[in-house]
Design goal:
With 227 residues, this protein is mostly helical. Helix content is 85%, strand content 0%. The two termini are 28 Å apart. The relative contact order is 0.13.
């Protein structure tokens, strides 16, 4: 019990530290907002101006493609941006479990904010065909959590390599694609307004995947951290 409490305190302090650094260096978050805005605007110029009404499958696919690349760019810096000296400082003060959980929590909150802003702007520019908004927003929340948990661990692995940005992209897509397919199916159900019981299997599967990834990260990250 005391060890769990210590990990909780470490996670709290590390998340606060990340938010403080983000607040002082707003260029990273502003850069992500600019990326989302410019990508949505390019989609508007390419599709909405050419076709009066964007087809639902195209609308759905474009949204998740934008969100996928936003998450890769936002979470890639989790460990890559940390200097060697700062990592050594963490190594002396906090547990590896606290570090990986803090990164997952911070990246989840960051992705939730970016995903909801992306949805509002995307729906405002390209129209909103969603009939079940509550299910669609729930899908976004689960997707943001899934992207954060998976990509955070991949970022820690890629940070150990020389060409970390390329390795991050290579390692992330095989992991994310199955999750992305289920998210697109869930969001399509929300757009069509189908009964929520139809989506229960995908919801439970995605929640189970997220729980498994967090558990595996908690268990395996200490071995990666010691290397």
């Amino acid at each position: 019990m005391p060890e769990t409490y210590n990990v909780f305190k470490e996670v709290t302090y590390l998340v606060q530290k990340d938010f403080l650094l983000e607040w002082r260096q707003k260029y990273a978050f502003n850069g992500m907002l600019l990326y989302v805005g410019s990508t949505v605007f390019v989609c508007y110029l390419s599709f909405r101006l050419r076709f009066a009404n964007l087809e639902v499958p195209v609308w759905n696919a474009l949204f998740w493609i934008i969100l996928l690349f936003t998450s890769v760019n936002a979470i890639a810096k989790s460990f890559i941006q940390e200097s060697r000296g700062r990592l050594l400082y963490y190594y002396a003060l906090v547990s590896p479990q606290g570090i990986i959980l803090a990164k997952i929590v911070y990246n989840t909150i960051l992705m939730l904010v970016l995903a909801l802003i992306c949805y509002l702007f995307y729906a405002g520019v390209l129209g909103n065909p969603v009939q079940d908004n509550l299910l669609f927003i729930g899908t976004i929340v689960i997707g943001a959590l899934g992207f954060s948990t998976s990509l955070t661990m991949i970022s820690s692995i890629a940070a150990k390599a020389a060409n970390s940005s390329t390795l991050m992209a290579v390692l992330s897509f095989p992991v994310i694609i199955p999750m992305l397919l289920m998210l697109m199916k869930l969001s399509k159900n929300a757009i069509d307004g189908l009964d929520r019981s139809v989506s229960s299997d995908e919801l439970l599967t995605l929640l189970a995947i997220n729980l498994i990834v967090v558990s595996v990260s908690y268990i395996l990250f200490p071995y990666l951290w010691r290397s």
